[in-house]
Amino acid sequence: MRPLQPPEPARSAEWRRRFGEEARAERPDLSALCLLVGAQADGELTEAGMDAAQIELDRLAGELPFRPGGPRSWATALSEHLGGGLGFRGTPGDYQRLESSLLDKVLRRRRGLPILLSVVWMEVARRAGAPVYGVALPGHFVVGFGPPEQQVLVDPFVGGRVLTGTDAELLVAGATGSPLDPSMLTPADPLDVVLRILNNIRAWSAARPERSDVALWAVDLALLLPSHPARLRYERAQLLVQRGDFLTGATELDAYAEIVAAVDEPAAARVRSQAHAARAMLN
């Protein structure tokens, strides 16, 4: 597959504008936000391509043979359709591919990270009328069906296998070494899902310094979310310096230092020192 390259600046700015608007909508559309992430990653993803991805989600929902009743019936039906019939699942190698974090590519390849496969499950199930939501277990995203007292969990990464309570406990213990807490089973907010996807993309690019362009647009999108970690501003400034934009990076480091100074003056002083060093690189 060809290397993905971001769109040209004007188109990228338009996608960012639309992403920010959608993120601040009364009811943000998860699939639309994920596709706008994909458009920032791939300059060849057009408006028509995003529409085609939405149509594919509609088609997949329309192929469900019936409308099950309870949560377990819904979980089984989606798993048989998407995992068993169509082969949506993940492999260890998917963690090494940027495409595994992009909804349009996951729909085409039928491979991806747990959270993107979960987005497919959720969007198809939602369109079909299922009581569905994401569950952000530490280290491994899954899908939930039904109210808490009847909750059924499935793991799209392994084809939609229905999880027992012990399965969920083992997933959490394997990721954190700690026991499963009931609070971990609550429905994930769509914007938290998007932030987690962007965090995955940042982690992918952090292991590939030559793709700091990917890290930068992922941080830019995360900063457009209504709620985001303040430290992302520091990360953005560092990326700008790394990419040779020393003056802008230094200015953003100074701005971040002002925020930090209110709670940790020694840390703010270290950031100001980094800003000074960045400006010195201009000489």
Key traits:
283 residues; alpha+beta; four-stranded antiparallel β-sheet; 12 helices; 4 strands; 59% helix; 7% strand; globular
Can you give me a brief rundown of this structure?
The protein is 59% helix and 7% strand.
Q: Which helices and strands appear, and what pairs or packs with what?
A:
Elements: H1 9-23, H2 30-41, H3 47-62, H4 71-85, H5 103-109, H6 114-128, E1 132-137, E2 140-145, E3 152-155, E4 161-163, H7 165-176, H8 190-206, H9 212-224, H10 231-242, H11 246-261, H12 265-280
Domain Protein SirB1 N-terminal: 54-199
Family: Belongs to the UPF0162 family.
Protein name: Transglutaminase-like domain-containing protein
- Into which percentage range does the β-strand content fall? 5-15%
SSE string: HHHHHHEEEEHHHHHH
List the uncertain runs: none
| Mean of pLDDT | 93
- Separation of the first and last Cα atoms: 41 Å
Instruction: Give the count of helical stretches.
Output: 12
Rg over CA atoms: 20 Å
Question: What strand order characterises the main sheet?
Answer: 1-2-3-4
Helix proportion range: 55-70%
Q: What's the number of extended β-strand segments?
A: 4
Structural class: alpha+beta
Overall shape: it is globular
What does the main sheet amount to? 4 strands, antiparallel
Family: Belongs to the UPF0162 family.
Domain Protein SirB1 N-terminal: 54-199
Organism: Streptomyces tauricus
Protein name: Transglutaminase-like domain-containing protein
